[in-house]
Each structure stands twice: as structure tokens, then as C-alpha cells.
Design brief:
single chain, about 200 residues, mainly beta, five-stranded antiparallel β-sheet, four-stranded antiparallel β-sheet
Length: about 200
């Protein structure tokens, strides 16, 4: 009889523990806006581009000074991920995470799920987010010299620790002027919306 009671109690404890794990509530998906995230660079105009990348963490929502806990980095119009290998440009941070990225067509409202088959990582041959006008996130106007986010392009990221986020870049100029002037409005100041999925294994936003 004692043996039966012990077996029953053991089964009950295991069952309750299992239910507790399965029913653990998910964290809320984070939706936020970053204003004037500065991504300076030196060089350009035929000279080698240098300068540290401004690193960003989706988990904290602010610039990161950590050598490991960062997800993406900005320098000028270039965006890197914490995953893959060095591309050979100056002053790159060491990539030691699982990060990746791809460019989705749509809006923040329409890109609802992560396509895990599309992720690319940075490599010596190319960045996950391709550089150049019309290739990645921006379009360059050769007459006005203005850099504008390309409409309908959402950047989807795998973070350094295997979670997911998406970004809509709104402006490349300080304070997001409606009609930027490339000669008077300070550039390399990103304003963007982002959504971060903080739950492991969840691929929907």
C-alpha cells in the first residue's frame, strides 16, 4: 500500500512539474522606435572607410559596448550582423554570435513570420545586408545626393543568441526631416522602428 502511495505521489509531482514547464507564459513581443542612432565613419570619397561600428542590442534597445552581446552594427550606410566572418574592412568587431539577416518585401504589419531558410551571415565575399543603392535597405539619388530608405523593405534579423527581430528604417538624417537636404542635414543618424521576439524558438512577431 505504501509503495502504491509513493508511486502515485511521484507520478503526481512529475505531472505537475511537466504542466508547469509547458504552461510557462511567453514574454511580450517588444515594439519600439529608435531615434537618431549615430553611425559615424571616417574616409569615403575614394578614401578607405574607417571607424568603429555603432553596435545595437535588441534585448536592451540601446547601443552596446559589449564585445559579445550585440546583434547588429551600423557605420555609414553599412549594416553588419554578429554572425559569420570578417569582411576585411577596417575596424570591424569580432563576430562571435549566431546572427544573420535578410531583406523582406512588405511592411512591418505584413511581415509577420520569420523565414528561417533565408538568413545569410556576413562573409568576406558579401554582407548579409547587401550594400549599394537599391541592393539592401536604401536608395541613393544621384542628383540630390540624398539617401532614402527604400519603401517596402523590412530587415529581418537573427540575433547573436538565436532570437528574432525586424526593422523598418525611417530616416538616415538627424531628426528625420521630411525632405532631407544632403548638404545641410546631418547624415548617419538612423531612425527606425523595430520589433523583437524575446522567446526562444518563436518565429512569429
Amino acid at each position: 500500500m505504501k509503495t502504491l502511495k509513493l508511486l502515485f505521489l511521484s507520478f503526481l509531482i512529475i505531472s505537475l512539474s511537466s504542466c508547469s514547464d509547458d504552461d510557462e507564459p511567453l514574454l511580450d513581443v517588444v515594439s519600439n522606435k529608435v531615434i537618431n542612432f549615430h553611425a559615424p565613419q571616417a574616409g569615403g570619397m575614394g578614401q578607405p572607410i574607417t571607424g568603429e561600428f555603432a553596435k545595437f542590442s535588441f534585448a536592451t534597445g540601446v547601443q552596446s559596448s559589449s564585445s559579445t552581446e550585440w546583434d547588429i552594427g551600423f557605420r555609414g550606410t553599412t549594416i553588419i550582423v554578429n554572425g559569420g566572418t570578417a569582411t576585411g574592412t577596417a575596424d570591424e568587431p569580432t563576430r562571435n554570435g549566431q546572427g544573420g539577416a535578410y531583406v523582406a518585401s512588405g511592411t512591418m504589419a505584413s511581415v509577420l513570420d520569420v523565414d528561417t531558410t533565408k538568413f545569410k551571415q556576413d562573409a568576406s565575399s558579401a554582407l548579409a545586408i547587401t550594400t549599394g543603392s537599391g541592393n539592401g535597405w536604401y536608395t541613393y539619388n544621384g542628383q540630390s545626393h540624398v539617401i532614402s530608405p527604400t519603401p517596402g523593405k523590412i530587415l529581418v534579423f537573427k540575433t547573436h543568441d538565436g532570437l528574432y527581430a525586424k526593422i523598418e528604417i525611417l530616416s538616415y538624417y538627424k531628426d528625420s526631416p521630411a525632405s532631407p537636404n544632403a548638404f545641410t542635414d546631418p547624415s548617419r543618424y538612423y531612425t527606425f522602428n523595430y520589433i523583437y521576439q524575446p522567446n526562444k524558438g518563436q518565429t512569429s512577431f
